């Protein structure tokens, strides 16, 4: 049974990620930090992660007056998972199919994976069209099997996905020596290659946020929303909600919850549906063997078991970023300890485990052989919003007219939100679900939450 947490607001003293540490001069980082909130706004978006910021941007693109849109953020701008992830936009080509199919059926499972491919292409086009300086690099990624168990499960997932009509024409397969050579992982038993991207997620989201503000949009940071009530006044029939913050109350027509792991604080009915889970990422400066011409030019997931893996991201500047799940056997914490809203801590043991993987990629015997400045650079954590059925929640919130949600991205938001947030903006603008092109199983419904809460999907990210 998964531990249930009391809902929480984002906690104040979170770790700074590599992305945060390299963008401290972003001018809107602490926008309106001490100012009282506006008395009213037409659209109020809670959360300045990629969900909130892109929903706001897309609303403005569709014709909404930017001055009518206010983003409220509990901490500094982009301080949630969007500013502290592993920088990977890595569509799942087939691996997660059986898990999704168990919950949502084969057709929806296929659509979930197809959606991730669309997201990668959408981000690629968006970055190119707007010439965004966010270290975006379209490259190859590999699912690397390091045990027979993983060889077997990947092959079964691929077969099941194909049987459901899934397209794998973009996936290349290597085994034995070819897998070792392509991936540069000496222990690789087999590997599946597909397209992905590396990027600086902080710079990407900050660009969108800045563009929204330049167009007239508003941002209030360090300003948690603590409560919501129905607005009662005969003078302003269009205003529906009173949104409470420590710096005043905002009356609004439309509330959009882009609060990911924290959604249940304002929507208690999600308390058992969205579970917070801390995840750790570590950045590394490569030594000679993995730098210069030999720097890593592809990304990977190194899989030991379904629930034990390391994600490996290769940045444009040659640095390597490793994330992982941190299961009971691989960390100094039990998996129960990882169910938390606390992103102020990181684990030395997880950093050590990632260092071992990194040294394996460099073929270095141990950290002692590295120069000062090489090896582990930084470790940070963030909170993932895990949903009971493995799919995000998008759409209108039943029973709360004028309230909408885009949340619960299960550690895969960079591969999901670039269709979900634009889809939500369409729904808010009165278009239909069909117009969003999203899998139907993403749609918010009370019935979905009730049904899923007692049979959680097992996460393998
Ligand atoms: C360590 C880590 C590594 C990851 N690696 C990857 C990866 O490599 N690839 C990938 O695809 N995905 C990855 N993810 C997942 C991805 O980062 C998320 O799915 C995505 O960023 C979610 O975006 P979001 O905007 O929905 O949520 P967030 O970015 O979490 O934004 C939610 C915002 O809401 C604010 N907020 C919450 N409650 C309130 C409130 N009451 N009042 C005001 N503000 C509030 C929060 O402070 C936060 O800024 C990772 C996540 C983590 C934590």
UniProtKB/TrEMBL annotation:
<protein>
    <submittedName>
        <fullName>FAD dependent oxidoreductase</fullName>
    </submittedName>
</protein>
<dbReference type="InterPro" id="IPR036188">
    <property type="entry name" value="FAD/NAD-bd_sf"/>
</dbReference>
<dbReference type="Pfam" id="PF01266">
    <property type="entry name" value="DAO"/>
</dbReference>
<feature type="domain" description="FAD dependent oxidoreductase">
    <location>
        <begin position="43"/>
        <end position="431"/>
    </location>
</feature>
<dbReference type="InterPro" id="IPR006076">
    <property type="entry name" value="FAD-dep_OxRdtase"/>
</dbReference>
<dbReference type="GO" id="GO:0005737">
    <property type="term" value="C:cytoplasm"/>
</dbReference>
